[in-house]
Amino acid sequence: MLQIDNLTLHYGHSQILHDVSLSARTGAVTCLMGTNGVGKTSLLKAISGTHPRSGGDIVLDGHPVARTVPAHALARMGVGYVPQGRDVFPLMTVRENLETGYACLDRSERHVPDEIFELFPVLAEMKTRRGGDLSGGQQQQLAIARALVTKPKLLLLDEPTEGIQPNIIKQIGEVISYLRDRGDMAILLVEQFFDFAYELGDHFVTLTRGTVTHNAPRAETSRAALLEHVSV
Ligand SMILES: Nc1ncnc2c1ncn2[C@@H]1O[C@H](COP(=O)(O)OP(=O)(O)OP(=O)(O)O)[C@@H](O)[C@H]1O
User: Fold this and answer.
1) What residues does the ABC transporter domain cover (predicted)?
2) CATH of domain 2-230
3) pLDDT higher than threshold 90 for residue 107
């Protein structure tokens, strides 16, 4: 579903990503791991169109993506992005937050599927509450649900367990497994909670100072080797 070749990215004059190549296939969880500041979020920004790459190629579902394609167009092409920190709209209700995903859909498709409330029952209970009144874990669930409303073919998740209580981390893990097993989307998961990522991942990519240092399927990724790559 996603193929990236030799991607580079800069902020001003400082180069953050160096010739990054990886792929994420449909029906699999690809984990992108590494310590703070190695460029994981920057890579997701480049894929989602929220920061332009400087060079390299991105191919989505067989279609080359030009460097200048804006985020809203990528969202329409099937890229669902759950950013670090969630970016829930605090003054909008849960339902209104979900409805912001409609912008990516044709008019006839604009509804919130029941499945989303089955995956996240708390959102059904809190439909009329404001986003800002939800706990951090509930906001994370809302951010994932909002991305699902857009019917993504590629789901980008940036540290969904960050600052979240263990019972909600477990639920989020179950949702990610379910979505993977449904088999209609590729999932690229940035995660620093090692055990969570190691349990879920089908393929592992590590970054060190903006360079890929490991890129292999689960069968060729020992826990010890992966830990070594993501340790400071
Ligand atoms: N808008 C920006 N302008 C300039 N530098 C930035 C900007 N955003 C990030 N950086 C720098 O780019 C580098 C990579 O940041 P990035 O957020 O992609 O890393 P990360 O691996 O996601 O880290 P973390 O786990 O802390 O989120 C860091 O050195 C960061 O300070």
Assistant:
1) 2-232
2) 3.40.50.300
3) no
